[in-house]
Each structure stands twice: as C-alpha cells, then as structure tokens.
Design a protein that fits this description.
The protein has 193 residues and is of the alpha/beta class. It has one domain: 3-Layer(aba) Sandwich (Rossmann fold), CATH 3.40.50.450. It is built from seven helices and seven strands; from the N terminus they run βαβαββαβαβααβα. Strands 4-3-2-1-5-6-7 form a seven-stranded parallel beta sheet, with helices on both faces. Helix 2 links the parallel strand 2 and strand 3. The chain starts with a strand and ends in a 15-residue tail after the last helix.
Length: 193
C-alpha cells in the first residue's frame, strides 16, 4: 500500500485517546512511507492524523470542497491541497488517490464515506481494503449491525468480512496488507447477497 485515505471526524471526541491514536497513525504511516490522503482540515481527528504524518516527515494530501475551507478550517501546511466543488468530487478524488481506506471515529460524514467505499467494493468497482481502527471500542456497535445484516440474509458473509477491524494500528495494517477481495457475481441473488 502506497497511499491510504483516512476518513474521520472533524471533532476530537471527549477522550484524548482518539486524538492521540489519530496522531500516532499519521506518524506510523509516515514511518512506513505511506502517503496520507484525507479531508484537508486542520481540526479534529483530521488535523491530528495530518500532524502526525507531517511531523514524521510524511507526504500528506488534503482534498477539500471550497465551501468547507472555512467550516473545517483548511490545513495550510500540507504537501498538497486539492480543492474540489462538491462532496461527491471529494470522495471520488480521495478514492482515485488511495490504495486502501482506514476509518477512525467520526459522525455521519465518516459513516457515509465508509459505506460508500464498502458498497463500491461489494459491487466490484474496486478491490481496496477498508479497515476500522476501533479506538476505545467505538465501532463495536457497527460490527454488531454488520453481523446482523449477514445473519438476516441482507449481506453475504464474504461481503460482511470485507470490513476489517482492529484496535491496534499495526494489526489493522497487517490485515489490510493480506486482504483478498471477495469475488463479486454478475448478479446478486439470494445465494450471493
């Protein structure tokens, strides 16, 4: 993996562990010469992961829509900032630039970005690994929901297994390096959901 997109919150959460882990992730990516792609903000977990990578001497590319430059407070110290017009353009550009995606804690926007990457993978539009960095068990509930989707027949087990997860940065990166995308059938049927 040469480039990883990080989807995460523009807030920091109440526990400093979220920010500390985001910063550590950025530093680890820089140490492994993995380019960081992210939403371009200097606040919240977004800013923390960028600062960790920059402090570690890494390459950091931000992608931000014009209208969010003031709301999310665009970072002015990145290797490169790409400005786009819409949220859809932002996600497409981030997808184009990355080899994999890591999801840190966040809100609705983070969930939407993650689910779009997973949906595209399920449809066979890419074979990139998508992983949750499950800081403080933040995504335990989501893992229960995904398991329920499989158990109730709305999501095939192989697709449920696409969403990798770990509380450890190193373990998650190892899982992502070993990831094999499931085969996607031409038609989605009861046997393949």
């Amino acid at each position: 993996m040469n480039s990883i997109v990080i989807f995460c919150g523009s807030g920091e959460g109440y526990d400093s562990t979220y920010r500390d882990t985001a910063y550590a992730l950025g530093g680890l990516l820089a140490g492994r010469n993995i380019r960081l792609i992210y939403g371009g903000a200097k606040v919240g977990l977004m800013g923390a992961v960028a600062e960790g990578a920059l402090d570690g001497g890494g390459e950091v590319i931000g992608v931000i829509p014009h209208f969010l430059e003031t709301k999310e407070i665009a970072h002015d110290g990145l290797s490169q900032m790409i400005r786009v017009n819409t949220m859809h353009e932002r996600k497409m550009k981030m997808h184009e630039l990355c080899d994999a995606a890591i999801i840190l804690p966040g809100g609705f926007g983070t969930m939407e970005e993650m689910f779009e990457m997973l949906t595209w993978a399920q449809l066979g539009l890419h074979q990139k690994p998508v992983g949750l960095l499950n800081i403080n068990g933040y995504y335990d509930g989501l893992k229960v929901i995904v398991n329920n989707m499989v158990q109730e027949g709305f999501l095939g087990e192989s697709f449920g297994n696409m969403l990798l997860s770990s509380e450890s940065i190193e373990e998650l990166l190892d899982q992502m390096a070993e990831y094999q995308a499931p085969e996607t059938p031409k038609y989605i049927t009861k046997q393949t959901t």
